[in-house]
Amino acid sequence: MKFKTTELIPALLAAFILITSCGNADKGTQGNAMTDSLKTGETAVSAKIMDRGLVVYKTHCFACHQMTGSGIKGIYPPLAENKTVTGEKTYLIRILLNGMSGPIEVNGEKYNQVMVPHNFLNDEQIADVLTFVRNSFGNQAEEVAADEVKSVRKANR
Ligand code: HEC
Q1: Is the C-beta atom of 94 inside 6 A of ligand 1?
Q2: Which of 47, 83, 137, 144 supports an S-S bond with 130, CB 3.0-4.6 Å?
Q3: Is residue 5 a part of any domain in this protein?
Q4: 124 C-alpha to center of ligand 1: Å?
Q5: Among the listed ranges 6-10, 29-33, 111-115, which one has the minimum average pLDDT value?
Q6: Closest to 93 in 3D by CA, of 70, 62, 125, 63
Q7: Is 36 within a domain?
């Protein structure tokens, strides 16, 4: 049996169109809704903010508080399952701007070390990293906005 090439072209074209359109249909219907927001129960924090927060966390926090937010027992407090982390935002912003020292107790474990100020980070970086830690490691809390950091920084002076 022989095919003329002119007869094959339309068939190949049809197959090609079918394959490519299937691929697009997949992306078109699911892509945005699934990836644009990382939904954690009641709060829906955008993946964009979480990604930016992760970058700051990897650069400025993880060495002490660890990638899992576990900290190191007795030295660096955990950020996972920590009521301060999911608690009052102004207090949290102040910790990053001013640093922290003195005795604290987290989940029954005592810490008495020094965290240096991170006021060299800009308002958005602080907001992003706090939103990230408040919605990672099993935590779930309201986002922190750059404007909130801005006003705490202003009142702080
Ligand atoms: C060099 C180590 C180090 C780095 C880097 C660091 N921290 Fe800390 N952090 C500490 C220590 C130590 C404490 C506890 C201080 C104390 O004992 O009073 C602390 C405390 C905290 C607390 C308060 C915990 C509580 O239960 O009161 C938060 C929140 C926090 N850090 C977040 C961050 C974030 C976010 C970053 C990154 C921007 C960061 N830290 C970077 C060492 C560090």
Answers
A1: no
A2: 144
A3: no
A4: 18
A5: 29-33
A6: 125
A7: no
Distance CA 65, CA 56 (A): 13
> What average pLDDT does the chain have?
83
Domain tally, the chain: 1
Is 118's C-beta closer than 6 angstroms to any atom of ligand 1? Answer: yes
- Segment 16-30 shows an average pLDDT of 41
The CATH number covering residue 84 comes to 1.10.760.10
Query: Which residue's alpha carbon is at the smallest distance from atom 42 of ligand 1?
Result: 115
Residue 20 falls inside a structural domain? no
Mind listing the pLDDT tens digit for each residue in 40-54?
444 579 999 999 999
Whether the CB of 104 sits within 6 Å of ligand 1:
yes
Domain of residue 106, residue span:
41-156
Question: Taking the model in full, what pTM does it have?
Answer: 0.79
Measured in angstroms, how far is the CA atom of residue 40 from the centroid of ligand 1? 24
Q: Work out the angle at residue 149's Cα, subtended by the Cα atoms of residues 144 and 153, and round it to the nearest 5 degrees.
A: 160
> Which tokens sit at 47?
């993946």
* 11 located within any domain: no
Instruction: State residue 156's pLDDT score.
Output: 83
Q: Is 150 in the pocket of ligand 1 (CB under 6 A)?
A: no
Cα distances (Å, whole numbers) of residue 156 to 90, 126, 138, 149, 151:
11, 15, 30, 10, 8
